[in-house]
Amino acid sequence: MAEAGRTVAEAPVTTAAPRSFELRHLGLFVALALLVGVGLVTRPAAFATADNLVSILSLAATIGVITVGATFVIIGGGIDLSVGAVMALASVWATTVATQEFGPVVMAICAILVGTGAGLVSGLLVAYGRLVPFIATLAMLVAARGLAQRMSDRRTQLVRPDNQAIVDLATTRVLGVPLLVYVFALVVVLGWVLLNRTTFGRRTYAVGGNPEAARLAGIDVRRHTMLLYALSGLCCGIAAILIMARTTTGSSTHGDLYELDAIAAVIIGGTLLTGGRGTIVGSILGLLIFTIITNLFILNGLNTSDQLIAKGLIIVVAVLLQRRNLKERTP
Amino acid sequence: MLVMRGIVKQFPGVRALDGVDLDVRAGEVHCLLGQNGAGKSTLIKVLAGAHRPDEGTIELNGVPAAPASPVDAIRLGIATIYQELDLVDGLTVADNIFLGHEHARLGFTDRRAANRAAGEVLARLGHPEIRPSAEVGRLPPAAKQIVSMARALSREARLIVMDEPSAALAHDEVANLFRIIRDLTARGVAVVYISHRMEEIREIGDRVTVLKDGRTIAVGLPARDTPTSEIVSLMTGRDVEYVFPPRASRPPGEEVLRVEGLSAPGAFAGVSFSVRAGEIVGLAGLVGSGRSEILEAVYGARRATGQVLVGGRQVRRAGLLQSVRRDGPLRALRRGGVVESVRLGMGLAPEERKAQALLLDQSVTANITLGGLSGFARLGWLDRARERAEATRLAEALDIRPRDPERPVKTLSGGNQQKAVLARWLLGGRRLLLLDEPTRGVDVGARAELYTVIRRLAEDGIGVLLVSSEVPEVLGLADRVLVLREGTVIHQGDARDLDEHRVLDMIMNGRAA
């Protein structure tokens, strides 16, 4: 038992630990503000326009949906490398001649089912086949990309004009903002609710933080792990709909290296790769930082290689800063 | 040999050490006593070079020495064996022993030489059966402790700090540990020994230093002659050592657990017993006698053959012949044991609290409600207000301090962490609690509280199955006792008919009384 004096003395340590997300994500907001500042200074005319904002959000939407799923998987102690490939496969499957016969609703359902199915397979391999997540999802990445190429014969498949409803997601604007941005926002909100307000979310933290404790507390860790990958796949399916809308195509080349962007966004957002800790809000902020960098480089006409170097630096700096925070918080 | 004067260590908001003096002579066993939170752990971390003191002096053999890092401390001849063992699970025994000073030539490790040298050190420790090439992660806790000790020995340390080395050990292992310590001190090595167990201090210690609130309040008391009551009152101001609550006034109720012919190859065989509502049944035995394994098998966390019936119904016929549960759907079986055990009203407080029970970063509330989350949810939606209210109620009922359910559980003392684990299983109407070493690493005062809590749970009609390596604890707390030896039950009977001496005799000599 801690003696009374000691207890009182310790109390400020906990209250000092940031709990509200405003504080927790303060660093990310500062980074975002800095980037916006850079944009305003270097390209005052082009950056702060409604059009540019909308284009940033549209750019972020596809990977954003994937990032939500990736956040769950990583907090749950896993990793999903297959997200880009699964999205490509879902987009190809939904735009085959056969699927397009049935109209836009069936196309969307098809994309979601394919994504969820692929995630479920990864999840089964990880949870019940006891494959290391890195390996299981690497295999899924390669296989899904291959299947997508086979189905499409490596050709880009156009969304037929009579299925225009899919493309409308990108072109129809409500209050000046394309529908696909609303889809993105909805996924973020649902993801946040699922992670913070449900037993599923709480168990995700437990499974990632201490799987043995979770198991002995009566949580079905394997089933939960499987569901996490299925959820990630579901997000890939939704992302496939958005990419079809934006590009009006389904293609086996969609989503190349999306897995790296998604994982980077999650890490920048403060989620531990070892699991058990992380937030949706952080991931989305991380993603916005990434997207704005891309946007700034394009606006300033800089070359994409430099952009990659800048992103690499950001990842390192973000993680270094967070490690400092973590140390301060650990007594 | 070692002289520490006026050591102060300040953490944000806490003065962990507030002027500690310590004075250790070569060849002695110097015991460090104090309640959890008195500053023992911080002090040894200063010695090990993990913390740098803010004030004070350290002299080693008359020379000022302030270990600035763990490497520095090892160079100075100070080795520390931590309570939470710091071994690398994925490496072999030999790799762990020589970690940081490998047998190598030009950077290439010499595995054979390392294995041979490790074998020698282990033999010196009386444990030639631990293979140097075995993976540490697969060893039982007691063997890990030996490996940790072998590491300290291999560094030719002049001062060895042992933080509760006996906590993970059973009775005969402790005797062996003492033999090793005597061997070391005979060669002039000084040992700083931390333990909560008075009888050990009497047996092995030379002098005692008592810490309280980060201060030294008694230096160099003779370990053998100072009365226990004096030491305990120095530590606490309270005269408590082993205080057990009175046994149940009512006779036990109906059976809540029946185990029939439970066997697991290499661990235990033909174990049958039952636990009734309101009854505490204790399993006594050495490490390796199968006591923890039986608990895990009952909980469904370990494969075994035989039958486990909870609340009179068959839970599962475990083992390779997984067969149909008579009055339930097949689905539950396929989904594995623990989930079903919890659903049927079992709860386990495992042996390694931090590794197996707690989400250290998360709040007390989240830890308490982990086992019964669905009780606060409708269609998966958590009612957080109700969750917090329920956790707060339980935290108050079990007197978990400090009273802040949002505090991360890792900032609590061992006793309070254990109460949080117990609180978890008070949700949702448990019928049977399985407790594995419930008071490990818990100080004297908090122990008495835990005993009271456990007894109160039984009074409320829960059946309790208790495992402890401390025989007095089993005898004092349990109503009925099963004595285990090498995986079989050699005695079963009322705890009041037994005393420590008879149980130890049965355990060590294999004679059923």
TrEMBL record, chain B:
Family annotation (Pfam families): ABC_tran
Output the Gene Ontology terms for molecular function: ATP binding; ATP hydrolysis activity
Q: Could you tell me which CDD domains the record lists for this protein?
A: ABC_Carb_Monos_I, ABC_Carb_Monos_II
InterPro entries reported in the protein's UniProt record:
AAA+_ATPase, ABC_carbohydrate_import_ATPase, ABC_transporter-like_ATP-bd, ABC_transporter-like_CS, P-loop_NTPase
Per its UniProt record, what SUPFAM superfamilies does this chain match? P-loop containing nucleoside triphosphate hydrolases (SSF52540)
Top-level division of the source organism's lineage: Bacteria
Q: Where is the ABC transporter domain?
A: 2-238, 251-511
Q: What is this protein called?
A: Sugar ABC transporter ATP-binding protein
